[in-house]
Amino acid sequence: MKLSLGPGALVAAAFIGPGTVTACTLAGANFGYALIWALVFATVATVILQDMAARLGAGARLGLGEALMQSVGTGPLKWAVGGLVFAALAIGNGAYEAGNLSGGALGIEAILGDGNIDRRWVVLALALFAAAALIYGKYKALERLLIGLVLLMSAAFIASAVIVRPDLTAFASGLVPRIPSGGLLTTIALIGTTIVPYNLFLHAAAAREKWTGPDGVKAARADTVISIGLGGLVSILIIATAAASLFQSGLEVKNATDMARSIEPAFGSAARYLVGIGLLAAGLTSAITAPMATAYALSEMLGGGEARRKILFRYTALAVVIAGASIAMLGIKPVELILIAQYANGLLLPIIAIFLLIVMNRKALLGTHANGLASNLAGGAVVAITLGLGLRAIMRAAGVWP
Q1: Per-position DSSP letters for 318-330, written without gaps between them
Q2: What CATH number should be reported for the domain whose range is 7-372?
């Protein structure tokens, strides 16, 4: 079997977005190496869940939205479940899209200098760019360019991690699960920025389109493990770099210029331009894929002919872009907005993961590509841990759990 990277690489590029750069940098700057374990867990969990989505698309030839609607029967229950999933996905992606657009604006600010531009106009321009790409669908070449720029950003952190020489003893201690004081929401953000619920819909749909032959499932699984494994490694190195260069300094990260200081050991004064280009590329990539995934979900759930699905796809995608741009233009600080999106993702994840597990156990629907015992145990563990973290955050906010 010849290795062919595809949807897995797209998923990795989507989760190494502004949220990842921001959440990982803040985690390293505020808590040092203490939350490395959260990203290791998140990477393994992402491989487990995205592997299911890849098998669903490449093996059973189904999108997640389509499979979900086929697995819950008919009548009120079907539409109640479909409505719940779509509402959760739309709300989560509205916040996520706002974070993507704000992240791209942060990149522009880093390149041009803080205070030299009106962020609202930048957000509007990026939203129009994403909307045009979704309407006309000619984003394949653009997508390759953006993934290349995100990889350039990733290379910067890999090089910087080597140069700043993280404390290996502290790094190893960070592999032991514990949540430092004040670190619960950051932990949820790290998980939410890696295990992105909308990527499950995107991955299944993309895998169905890319692989059609008998070796499709094997190719899809190899693509998933390699691409997401490398993406998780990059995220871990971002934390390690920030921990080594920012944690002891006590610097508060407010903008992309502050983030750039974590890679100054590798690139000097050029660091802010590299961070700016990386954030802009990551923001645009995610600003296109988030509405796309929501649109896939709704068009698959409602079904109908090809023409109907195309109309649903376009209008749903545009609605997510408009919602994200509206939130982003409210004046909330970009770093805070990006983190809010990650919290939303972390809380949304258990809901989508539960439905994915239900779908993947329908042997009548998936045949040999349905989950086995090992996949169910691994998936169940992911759901239990993420659900526990989410419930703890809710109870803490309500004052029930200190």
Answers
A1: HHHHHHHHHHHTT
A2: 1.20.1740.10
